[in-house]
Amino acid sequence: VEGYKTGKNSVESFRQHEKNKSHRETTTQFQTQISKQPSIATQLDSQLRAQQNYRCEMLLKQPTSLRYLMSQGVAVEGHDAHNGYLFQLLQPRAEDCPDLCQWLNDKNYMSHDINNELIQLISLDILQRLLEKIHEAGFYSILADETCDTVNKKQLVVLFHWVDEEYTIHEDFIGLVDLPQTDSATIYSVLNDILIRCNIPPGLCRGQAYDSASNMSGHIRGVAARFKQQNPAAIHIHCLAHCTNLCLQDVSKKNPKLENSLSYMIDALKAILDNYSVLCAAMTETNNDSHDEYGRRAGGILAMLDKLDTFYGLCLSYLVFSATEQLSRTLQAVNTSLHNARNAVQLTSGNLQNRPAKHSTTEDARDLTAAPVLPRHHRPPIRIDEGEKKKNHTFQSPESFYRKQYYKLLDLLDNELAWRFEQKDTIVASDIEQLLLTSANEETIKFPTTTLETYSNDFDRLHTQLLMMPETLKESAKGNKIKKVTSIRTISDAMNVVLVSKRLLPEVHKLLRLHYTVPVTTATAERCFSSLRRIKNYLQSKMTQKRLNDLMCGYCHKEALSETDMTSTTSEFAQRNTEF
């Protein structure tokens, strides 16, 4: 085809060409081909949608890796983006997802600010779900304790103690507050501010648990006293695990044989007693073979081990600390109620009192130490002895002397336990316990005055429903006769078996939950301090308070962290950062 060389009569020629059959066929084929392809706008929109899907898919992998690092308490960033744990964790995942390699190379969403924002969104989601459960529970208690972090900032840890519908006790971490001062007024205002931010009414607080510091437990201006002035139903419990520790400290100070063993672990004491002869032989060999400092130290240790006082002191220490350590473990459990704590203390005290005297230890040590001798007798001054020359008591044998030491120690420990665990506000909790047990055993119900005054606004028809509670116990027993109810847990288990009883006896259900709402210890707060030392160590000492709380929230609530919906988190992150 040569085409047109001149423009003369070109229009007429074009019109003739359009009527040609071949031209019409070619035009039809071209239009058909064009109709199958999307428009330019459609093509641009599809490309944008593909990029969005790619970014959403890649961005979803980043918070899932952050969730793992938060649950393990591991740092996210390093000195730069390539040295951080997040980048190093995403690299192996890129081997299974080639698109992730390009994502890491672009570095568009790997900055510190974006990671902090994602961590904050995860933490807020956990707290929102937690606070919803606390709002549904109604009653709650406050746990608080203070500590210093690695940069000597005074941190106040705050937890909520609450009970669900199945009578399961929960103690959940809420946050850490950097205290400018540690006086009671500052701490009280901080706790009130937390309640306001969490939208939790202060009037529903039914318990407080702190240590024995004057700013927390002072009976006039302490934090507990300030809360009770506002809400008398918020009874204060001094941490019972801390009371056990104070009992042992007082007993050790008054008994020199225990004072040096207070810092020993029970397993270490048992290992020394089980291998006493082997230890003496090792010290003897070291003392004879070595003429340096270590030989002299071995000689000094051997001289102490050869004394009966040392062996007897170790035996007494193991006796006391083994029993009280198990008591402390029981008290530190989250699901321990005040009723169980009191029973544990009584069982421990009774177990120690019923044990045989340890004067037989002198016979056990016959081949291990030197022969027992009586200590030197000291005559008291005349001015103390009222100026009369009386014959003072003297022990007839070493066995009688050590027997007296043994019973003196047990009496001292028993008195300390009775004094430390008898607190003023526990009377109200004991009244609730006695009220439930009395009604369960179909005895005469008497409402204590203190209980009526404290919980006058919580119950309306309690007396009538308490009379109906024995039928619930009989229904749950399924024909088995219950002789006598001695535990509150028996009543709560019966209410869980007969589910309709919670709707039929709502006042009893509320009273049971109120009983379990009263806190026992602040051991969970102490465990949060261990988490704080792991999260904010010397390598991460410069993190902000906001980031510290977000990381602590994820680390302390690992189960809730694993249930976090990462798709919703990334969607909220995208909506926050949408540019209009």
Condensed summary:
The chain is of the alpha/beta class and 580 residues long. It is built from 28 helices and five strands. The radius of gyration is 37 Å and the shape is extended.
Report on the structure:
With 580 residues, the chain is of the alpha/beta class. It has four domains: 69 residues, no CATH class; 174 residues, Nucleotidyltransferase, domain 5 (2-Layer Sandwich); 159 residues, no CATH class; 92 residues, no CATH class. Helix content is 62%, strand content 7%. The chain has 28 helices and five strands. Strands 3-2-1-4-5 form a five-stranded mixed beta sheet, with helices on both faces. A hairpin with a 5-residue loop joins strand 1 and strand 2. Helix 21 crosses helix 22. The chain is extended. The chain starts with 9 loop residues before the first helix and ends with a helix.
User: CATH class of the largest domain, please?
Assistant: Alpha Beta
Largest sheet data: 5 strands, mixed
How many H/I helices?
28
**Helix fraction bin:** 55-70%
Low-confidence stretches: none
How large is the radius of gyration?
Answer: 37 Å
Could you tell me the CATH topology label of the largest domain: Nucleotidyltransferase, domain 5
- The overall pLDDT, averaged over residues, is 83
Termini Cα gap: 56 Å
**How would you write the strand order of the largest sheet?**
3-2-1-4-5
